[in-house]
Each structure stands twice: as structure tokens, then as C-alpha cells.
């Protein structure tokens, strides 16, 4: 099935370049030149991934990302000419799943898109029994087949990256994973120093879980080592 991707960028040359490369991979493409148009397309169509520029006139990409995250977990790849660490952290904290700096290699962007889509949608394992794909920890239930998380029966909205981190830790209770371990197992890329992607996504994930579990901590920090979920 061809996945439907929305490109949001006010620069028509960049939007066209991205479209050419993704269309060559067989993806369906829609384009928006501003934030309001992007949100209208999100409501009208079934969009399965968003490539979102930060710096746009009117409603910028950060505001669009926050609006999308109010009710959707659609994977978001944010692109920006801003290359500072705080700019990346801000983008990830608003709910983006990944962040690329302009100018970027279009082939790398295609690889990032494929990785996000694979992580989000290609998770079904037919050989599993009805219970094999469920993980139960206290009041938490994680369903790998449906990519859903519930706490005491209430659904919790997690982004694809947040779900992947939670599933990894919950699948190995008691084991400590370093930031490097988590990054390389989930992003499938080599970890590099000063990469704060894991800590930003972990912060958002823990905040959501603590809020829904009445302040109870599920994910624990082992200082100087990494993160774990108690058995």
C-alpha cells in the first residue's frame, strides 16, 4: 500500500525536490505552503507522515506540530535551517519524531521517512498468538500489534518514537539501556556524542506516563548508565 505523505514548506523548490524523491519511491504526495493549509489537509485526508518546515510565514511549523499533536500521533519529520541544539530540542519537545537540518541530502531524508513509516506501521507479526504481543506492567498494557498503550483501560497517545522506546524498555524489565543503546536500536543509526534525541523523547514519554499514572514512575534513571523499567 502506498503511504500518503504531506510536505509542508513555503519554499516551492524544496517542496518539489522532496516530492520528486519520495514519488520515485512510490509514495502518494500532498503539499501545503503554509500551516493552515497543512492542518486542513490533515483533517480532510488520511495523512500517514508529515514533513514539516519550521520557518514559515503566519503559522510556523512548531505551532502546526503542537496542533497536530492535540489529537494525532502521525509521525512528523521536522526540517529547518536552524542547526542549534536548542532548536532541535524545541522541535522534538513539540512532538516531532525526527529533525533534519537544511540543506539536507534527499537520499538521507528518504531513509528517515522509510524508518519512521516502518517503525509506525510495519509492526504486525501474524505468527504471534493473541497474548504474545501484549505486555502488562502494573496498570499499563502495551499492544505491539495495534501499536496502542492503555493505562487502566484509558488509551495513551504516544508518538511512534515514544512507543518504540517504551516497548523496548518494557520488553526487557530490569535491564538498563544507555542512551546509545536506545538510539542505535530504535533509530538504526550510529550514536554520536551530544545527540540529545533520546533524552528529549524520554522526557516527553515519562511526562505522559507520570501524568496518567497519578505521579507513579514507571521508567527509572540509573544515573550515569541509562534507563530501565523495573521487573
From TrEMBL:
Keywords: DNA-binding, Phosphoprotein, Transcription, Transcription regulation, Two-component regulatory system. Residues 132-231 bind DNA. Residues 4-117 form the Response regulatory domain. Residues 132-231 form the OmpR/PhoB-type domain. Gene3D superfamilies: 3.40.50.2300, 6.10.250.690, Winged helix-like DNA-binding domain superfamily/Winged helix DNA-binding domain. It comes from the Bacteria. The modification 4-aspartylphosphate is found at residue 53. SMART domains: REC, Trans_reg_C. Pfam families: Response_reg, Trans_reg_C. This is Transcriptional regulatory protein SrrA. It comes from Paenibacillus plantiphilus.
